[in-house]
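> forwarded from #structure-qc
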């Protein structure tokens, strides 16, 4: 249900205003649409630029484990498309390996999403778990407690052993700012990441939201090892080239929804006035624009609409984007 607003929401153009919840096919239709949307990737030049720089970094650190190496960092607002580009790079590497007749190496690029409340030690254990280290599940030898055997130095040593054995080329720590919150201060965390790079334990990409800027700046020595920050800046719709890129992204997303059978006709996501509203709600971040579209799809499908309409985008803006502090008012309502 959309939040109340002084503005009047646009009326639906097709379908019903509210879903017919008694329709036995409703759930299946929504599930089919969600499944069709899975894995959608739109080539977006700023994201491709970061992927290219990460490929350069992988090449730079190849064969240099055990010696001091640099790292990389990427900070931007939530839902800006940071995580998506890391997962796309992983998919690219796997696809390229298959094309060369190589067996897929699931450890080539490892992504650890840091959960709220996770400690640095928890991050290391999660990384080892992804590498299949059975040490974490082994029984105590009777002389030391499990906690004694899982000290940070011990975990770090095991990571250093497994990375070259498994052919790990990049470790991505996503939502890294949560480690700061878990510990109450960032010095211990940043110093340990710095140590991992100084010892050449694993190539690291640290990804975080806007709060991670403070996390990084608290340790200038770590920042020096992370090089120039990778930038995924929002697109300014008032400038010609950024506006073109944003429109290209929205048009291609619209086309992808049709190609995958979600809708049979265009939703005009890349045309005015819809694109103007998407630019405002997303703040110019294509990742946020994609999320708004993804949230609008099931609303339109439930209503039996033929496409995503301004009504659906208005509902998502009021019920999702405004609730998450992306924007203060609904540009789709008047």
């Amino acid at each position: 249900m959309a939040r109340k607003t002084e503005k009047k929401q646009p009326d639906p153009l097709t379908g019903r205003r509210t879903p017919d919840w008694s329709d036995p096919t409703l759930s299946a239709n929504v599930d089919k649409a969600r499944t069709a949307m899975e894995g959608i990737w739109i080539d977006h030049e700023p994201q491709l630029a970061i992927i290219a720089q990460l490929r350069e970094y992988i090449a730079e650190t190849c064969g240099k484990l055990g010696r001091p190496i640099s790292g990389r960092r990427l900070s931007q607002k939530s839902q800006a498309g940071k995580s998506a580009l890391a997962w796309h790079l992983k998919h690219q590497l796997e696809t390229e390996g298959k094309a060369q007749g190589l067996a897929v190496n699931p450890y080539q690029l490892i992504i650890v999403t840091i959960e709220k409340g996770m400690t640095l030690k928890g991050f290391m254990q999660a990384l080892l778990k992804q590498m299949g280290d059975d040490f974490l599940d082994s029984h105590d030898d009777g002389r030391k407690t499990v906690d004694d055997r899982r000290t940070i130095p011990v975990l770090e040593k095991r990571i250093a052993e497994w990375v070259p054995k498994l052919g790990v080329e990049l470790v991505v720590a996503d939502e890294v700012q949560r480690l700061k919150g878990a510990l109450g201060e960032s010095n211990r965390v940043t110093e340990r990441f710095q140590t991992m790079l100084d010892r050449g334990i694993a190539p690291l990409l640290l990804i975080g939201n806007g709060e991670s800027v403070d996390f990084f700046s608290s340790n200038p020595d770590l920042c020096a090892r992370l090089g120039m920050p990778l930038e995924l800046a929002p697109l300014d719709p008032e400038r010609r080239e950024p506006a073109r890129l944003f429109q290209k992204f929205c048009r291609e997303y619209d086309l992808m929804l049709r190609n995958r059978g979600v809708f049979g006709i265009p939703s005009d996501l890349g045309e005015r006035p819809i694109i103007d509203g998407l630019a405002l709600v997303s703040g110019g971040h294509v990742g946020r624009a994609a999320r708004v579209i993804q949230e609008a799809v099931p609303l339109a499908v439930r209503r039996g609409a033929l496409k995503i309409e301004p009504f659906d985008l208005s509902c998502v803006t009021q019920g999702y984007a405004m609730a998450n502090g992306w924007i203060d008012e609904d540009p789709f309502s008047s």
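QC bot note: The chain has two domains: 26-42+235-321, 62-226. The chain has 14 helices and four strands.
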